[in-house]
Amino acid sequence: MARVWGYWAVFFLFTAPALADPSPARQAELRDMVSQDCGSCHGMTRKGGLGSPLLAEELAKFSLEAIVETILEGRPGTPMPPWKTMLSRDDAEWIARYLMGEAQ
Ligand code: HEC
Q: Which of 27, 49, 59, 104 is the most buried (most CB within 10 A)?
């Protein structure tokens, strides 16, 4: 029985986001953040620098959820910091879609 609930929890974890897009004002802040803050390592044009390129074709190999997790939790042992104190899951998901070219 517990196992069944576990499956439901996983199901909700993967389907529940995307319901709440950040407000237009917040989206403008997030766009600035991607070019300024993320850009300091990944490049203003996201072609890479200290951090790997964040171009849609590079990110296509990851699932959206994996990108969201990387943004929120960082990559331990690498310079990629966790952003969860500054970004909500909705913010991170919007950024992931923005990087993938699925949000403007
Ligand atoms: C201090 C430098 C730094 C900053 C700032 C930074 N990153 Fe990173 N990021 C990295 C590094 C280095 C990696 C590669 C980690 C590795 O070797 O696995 C990375 C990896 C990633 C990845 C995984 C890509 C891949 O191909 O493995 C994503 C997605 C990502 N960063 C998004 C972001 C976003 C979004 C921001 C801004 C909110 C950001 N990063 C800010 C350094 C940074």
A: 59
